[in-house]
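Subject: sequence -> structure tokens, single chain

Hey, anyone have a minute? Need the predicted structure for the following. Not urgent.
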Amino acid sequence: MVQFDYDEIIKNLGVLAQKTQAGLLMYAQTEASKLESYMKINRPWTDRTSMAKNTLTARASGTKTGARITLAHGVDYGIYLEVCNEQKYAIIQPTLRVKGPEVLKGAASIISKIKV
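Reply:
Had a minute. Here:
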């Protein structure tokens, strides 16, 4: 007969969750920095004041189950760059399309390496 120490299992699951969340947050912070740089370099518009470029941001934050990366404009007309003119000047959605799968693949790699 196989016996389980349920207290030990529950304790290890808690440790695994903490390590996973910490690892994902650190990874998200690194990736957010890369995404912000990518957006600033690859923006499809011509700068006139540099405000739109300089205020593009990517920020990482923790969640209950992992981490989140938020991409945003810092100018009030950023929404128009994203949705008007047939999205000719959009940078957030194109960045997600190009870099999103790579970021998710890296997150999966982080999760697979976490040990209790």
